[in-house]
Amino acid sequence: MLNRNFDLDIKSNYSLEKSNTFGLDIASESFFIVKNLKDLKNILSDNKTKKITVLGGGSNILFTKFLDGLCLKIDLKGIDIIEENKNNVVINIMAGENWHDFVQWCVNKGFGGVENLSLIPGLVGAAPIQNIGAYGVELKDVFISCNTVNIKDQTEKEFDKKNCLFGYRTSRFKTIDKNIYIITSIKLRLTKEKHKYNISYGSVKQEIGNREINLESISNAIIKIRKSKLPDTNILGNCGSFFKNPVINESKYFELKKKFPSLSAFKVEKNQYKISAAWLIEFLKYKGRSIGNVGVYKNQALVLVNLGGATGKELLSLANKITSEVYYNFKITLQPEVEIL
Ligand code: EPU
Fold first, then answer.
1. Is the Cβ atom of 337 under 6 angstroms away from ligand 1?
2. Which of 2, 91, 122, 234 is the most interior residue, by most CB within 10 Å?
3. Of residues 169, 219, 226, 314, which has the active-site annotation?
């Protein structure tokens, strides 16, 4: 078979510094920007023996070492309204679109459902992988399906919502089918009228104040809150929340609450409590602390930051230090939300 690698612009020993929001200067053995489905299938079939890493916005990934194999940066573009009636629209969004730009597009057009997910960094294709969520809304609330390409045999497959096995910051693409499929587009159903506004979070309600509740005011409030809590990745390298909020059972929660009365937690299901990982980390006096080139952000204890010139290993060792101290003090094992490579 013809080796198409010669036709495709594959870069060797390519620095990923600009392709990850931690701003880590790690190189990949080879790197290719995917602009269409045909190139994606060709490059996968020509590189069957290589390890494939898929990169979206690089906003949920911690590189700790040289990246062997082929790194694919997804740059598939396009937003199309594919169905429309009086109440709803169904929109197909290609994986390489910027998530926040898409949210703003929806707010401007008057399409409701994703306004609470304003300013989440990263690309559309990454959104289902961890079922992105913020301020009481998760992607799964508006999700219909996603299209994928199988890395091994390049076949296309559509997964509907049920089949994606969404959970809190998780899906089949992060668990049973990790590294099997590349998400190429997603379909969402949004409202055109009778929007279901979600201002259940006190901080959102407070930020809106006396303003009228609409898509724009909610989006603006969330942008403001996120800007005040989360550092701008252009100034301070970070990946948003580094850890997930752990979920524990009721008896363990009552035991902890007795010992630590100010513990911040939320009931999620019968007998299940989601503990604020930020609270645990702050309690251990890590908030605002720096160790060498890395640290914990001063306004949000869940956010690890590159203070400049950090290595992935330094960030990982800070994460490990926090994880073991949290375990030692609370007997809770923190799980990273960020993918560690
Ligand atoms: N808190 C602290 N110390 C802190 C920050 C928070 O004790 O430094 C406690 C407070 O009690 C606060 C509670 O934690 O009321 C919740 O804080 P916040 O609203 O900031 O939310 P979070 O649980 O820390 C999660 C998501 C964020 C998302 C916000 C808002 C996870 C892992 N993180 O953070 O998502 O923006 O809720 O919905 O679920 C991300 O995934 O990258 C991300 C930023």
1. yes
2. 91
3. 169
pLDDT (tens digit per residue) in 40-73: 999 999 999 999 999 989 999 999 999 999 999 9
Pick the CATH number of 5-74 from 3.10.105.10, 3.40.50.360, 3.30.43.10, 3.40.50.2300: 3.30.43.10
Active site residue 241: yes
172 labelled catalytic: no
CATH of 79-228, one of 3.20.20.390, 3.30.465.10, 3.40.50.2300, 1.10.10.10: 3.30.465.10
Q: Where are the alpha helices (DSSP H) in 140-238?
A: 202-208, 215-229
Please tell me if the CB atom of residue 170 comes closer than 6 angstroms to any atom of ligand 1.
no
Tell me which of 3.40.50.10810, 3.90.78.10, 3.90.1150.10, 1.10.760.10 is the CATH number of domain 230-340.
3.90.78.10
Catalytic residue check, 337: yes
Summary mean pLDDT of the chain: 95
pLDDT in tens, 233-290: 989 999 999 999 999 999 999 999 999 999 999 999 889 999 999 999 999 999 999 9
Indicate if ligand 1 lies below 6 Å from the C-beta of 300.
yes
Contacts 24+ apart (CB under 8 A), 322-327: 322/243, 322/281, 322/284, 322/286, 322/296, 323/243, 325/284, 325/286, 326/277, 326/280, 326/281, 326/284
